[in-house]
Design goal:
By secondary structure, this protein is α/β, with parallel strands linked by helices. The protein has helices at 36-40, 42-53, 68-73, 107-115, 145-151, 160-174, 190-203, 208-218, 235-245, 286-310, 315-319, 322-336, 348-359, 368-371, 375-392, 398-413, 429-436, 442-449, 453-456, 464-485, and strands at residues 27-32, 58-63, 80-85, 89-94, 97-102, 121-124, 179-183, 219-220, 224-227, 253-255, 260-264, 280-282. It is globular. The termini are far apart.
Length: 488
């Protein structure tokens, strides 16, 4: 079977062709972190916006860690299919990605693109750990060897913040005009966080003050909230895409019908007409952001750790367990909802019901261990904020604390209840192993892990209620397993 590419377009069924002619779309967006999520989310919105209102908003996708996406998409002229799985399955080829770049091998080209007047927008989905910051403080980890190397002038820059700052330096020198840096990662106030990290980096440079002053005048950092579940693509998914296309597609991404994008409308150099594609443009992303991070992401992490420990490979399998499903529902309603400021007209109860329905979707096959990755980077915004707010209100957030305890059990034992190994894929994995190596009891494991100040901060570990709730939950998981710990 021939491979998808520009030459295949005339032979595709009309209903699956791109909404725009890819050959006529010039690059105006540089996207850092072109993984499956971006291709199923922002790239789809952007293509629909261009189809509705025009504009030179083609995307140059930058991969940070490997050539995998380059090898998938370059031979296909940047084209790939989006396979949407719900009650029915649909597929369409997307043509918004017009160029691809591997930062580790093409650092000079990346810097040139960031400095080009035609580049007016940089978007990011590099995951929480890609920011190389302490989640509890939001500050750049200057002790990180790669960050230190980038500050010292190592070429090409190894970190996302280093790449951005060196690109902004080149842009300022070229007098190439203003630009917007738009974070689309699951971080509270992600625009403000990115701005702070860029300025932290500038402060370490000899000419940092002048660069920071130019950034204040010429660069905007809007916040955003993104929501779409995008599991890892399987061989079966690629086979189904090939059947529907009549061509082999190595870049197929799989997703659900639901999608949401809320963006702070503060752009320094224009933007696609995303509102024509259903994006919510607002002056304040924070209420939407808190709802999504705490209701969806907090629940997702909790059920992923509980599910993986219980031996469930996929989210839908875990949600079929009445105990886990009950914890998710109570976490949302009892612990999270009281902490939220709900936008006018937004039905938060309906949103929770919709989330539970999405988690039950068996067609997605979203792996629990995939969601369990990078827990040290995710816990602060997904669960710890909820816990801190409920404790301050005099409540006992037992379900959110169970989520933390499930993470602790996962990283402490690195195995499911049946003895099968679980991968601890985390930037602090070595420290987690060292901290828990000598823990013989649940209480000792809690005491050890709560010393991670960059995760738990300085105040929360000293709260007796929090410590006891987490310890009680971890003891229940240790003695009776997930079934005992989720008995409501």
């Amino acid at each position: 079977m021939a491979r998808l590419g520009l030459a295949a377009l005339p032979h595709l069924p009309e209903q699956v062709r791109p909404l725009v002619d890819p050959r006529a779309l010039r690059v105006g967006v540089v996207h850092l972190g072109i993984g499956a999520f971006h291709r199923a989310h922002q790239a789809v919105f952007t293509e629909e916006a261009v189809a509705a209102a025009g504009g030179g908003w083609g995307i140059c996708g930058v991969t940070q860690r490997s050539r995998g996406v380059i090898d998938q998409l370059r031979p296909q002229d940047g084209l790939y299919s989006v396979l949407v799985r719900g009650e029915e399955t649909s597929l369409r080829v997307t043509g918004a990605v017009r160029d691809l770049l591997f930062a580790a091998e093409e650092g000079e080209r990346l810097q040139s693109l960031l400095a080009a007047p035609t580049t007016r927008l940089v978007t990011l989905t590099v995951t929480e750990k890609g920011y190389r910051h302490d989640p509890a403080t939001g500050r750049l980890r200057r002790s990180d060897p790669d960050v230190a190397a980038d500050i010292a002038g190592g070429a090409p820059p190894r970190t996302v913040v280093g790449q951005l700052v060196r690109g902004l330096q080149a842009r300022r020198a070229a007098d190439a005009g203003p630009i917007t840096l738009l974070s689309c990662d699951n971080l509270p106030s992600n625009g403000a966080v990115l701005r702070g990290l860029v300025l932290d980096f500038c402060a370490a440079l000899a000419d940092g003050d002048a660069l920071a002053a130019w950034i204040a005048e010429s660069v905007s950092f809007p916040s955003s909230m993104v929501d779409r579940i995008v599991p890892a693509t399987t061989d079966a998914d690629r086979a189904e895409a090939a059947r529907l296309l009549g061509f082999t597609d190595h870049g197929t991404v799989v997703t659900e019908p639901f999608r949401q994008w809320v963006v702070e409308d503060r752009f320094a150099a224009g933007r696609p007409a995303w509102e024509r594609a259903g994006v919510v443009l607002t002056a304040d992303v924070a209420p939407y952001e808190a709802m999504k991070l705490r209701l969806l992401n907090g629940s997702h992490s909790t059920l992923a750790y509980l599910g993986a420990l219980a031996g469930y490979a996929h989210v839908a399998d875990a949600m079929a367990d009445p105990g886990i499903a009950g914890v998710v529902a109570h976490l949302m309603a009892d612990d999270v909802e009281p902490t939220l400021t709900v936008p006018d007209g937004f039905d938060v109860a309906a949103y929770q019901a919709e989330l539970i329905e999405r988690f039950h979707n068996p067609a997605l096959r979203h792996r629990t261990v995939q969601i369990a990755m990078d827990g040290t980077q995710k816990l602060p915004q997904r669960l710890l904020g909820t816990i801190a707010d409920r404790l301050a209100a005099g409540a006992e957030p037992r379900y959110a604390c169970l989520g933390v305890a499930a993470w602790m059990r996962y990283v402490w034992t690195a195995q499911a209840e049946d003895g099968s190994p679980l991968p601890v894929d985390d930037p602090l994995a070595d420290r987690l192993r060292r901290l828990t190596a000598g823990a013989a009891t649940a209480r000792e494991a809690v005491d050890a892990l709560l010393t991670l100040e960059e995760v738990f901060g300085a105040e929360l570990p000293g709260n007796g209620t929090f410590r006891e709730l987490v310890t009680d939950s971890l003891e229940a998981l240790t003695k009776g397993g997930v079934a005992a710990a989720t008995r409501i």
